[in-house]
Every structure is written in structure tokens, then in C-alpha cells.
Amino acid sequence: DLRNSELDGQQAEDLLHEVGITVNRNAVPNDPRPPMVTSGLRIGTPALATRGLDSAAFTEVADIIGTALANGKNADVAALRARVDKVAADFPLYDGLEDWKLV
């Protein structure tokens, strides 16, 4: 719920996309913002579970999201992206994927 945040749902979605986390902006009950902007985010966890993230990794992802949203436009995108990249490297989709090449 971003109603009390400097960011709206669209800005939060865009910021998290910059750091490598995909979320969807969604309306919250009695949302004061228009439907294409919204005041909420939906964070899906199935992709993280599929990668085998443990509770510590889920906590790290939550902290990255919280840090990004708390800092808003002043977020250190590069540092947050590095943290996301580390989690992704620690929990790859499957071994060997990074070696695939298009012909």
C-alpha cells in the first residue's frame, strides 16, 4: 500500500524494474489514484520459489524492495541491482542456462 508514500504504483513498479525486480502495480481498496497509476503493488513469489530461494534469500529480496521504496527517487539503483544480481546468481533458474547461445 503506497498511499502514504512519495511513490505511486507506477513509479514504484518502474523503480523496482530498474533494480531487476518485476512487480505489478495494482489498485488498493478505495484507491485514490487512477487505475493506470494505482497506489499498490503485487509481488509474485512463485518465480522465487521455483528458483529455490530459501528464507534468507526471501528476506534479502524483501529488504531490497523495502530499501528501494523507502529511498524512492534517491535509491542507489546500482547497489540494489548488484544485490539482485547476487541473489539471481546464487539461485539460478537451472545450471547451464547462462551458457546457452542463440544461433
UniProtKB/TrEMBL annotation:
It is an enzyme of class 2 (transferase). It comes from the Bacteria. Its EC number is 2.1.2.1. Signal peptide: none annotated. The keyword Zinc-finger does not apply. InterPro entries: PyrdxlP-dep_Trfase (IPR015424), PyrdxlP-dep_Trfase_small (IPR015422), Ser_HO-MeTrfase-like (IPR049943), SHMT-like_dom (IPR039429). Transmembrane segments: none annotated. Keywords: Methyltransferase, Pyridoxal phosphate, Transferase. One of its GO terms (molecular function) is methyltransferase activity. Residues 1-65 form the Serine hydroxymethyltransferase-like domain. GO terms for cellular component: cytosol. Its cofactor is pyridoxal 5'-phosphate. GO terms for biological process: glycine biosynthetic process from serine; methylation; tetrahydrofolate metabolic process. Belongs to the SHMT family. This is Serine hydroxymethyltransferase.
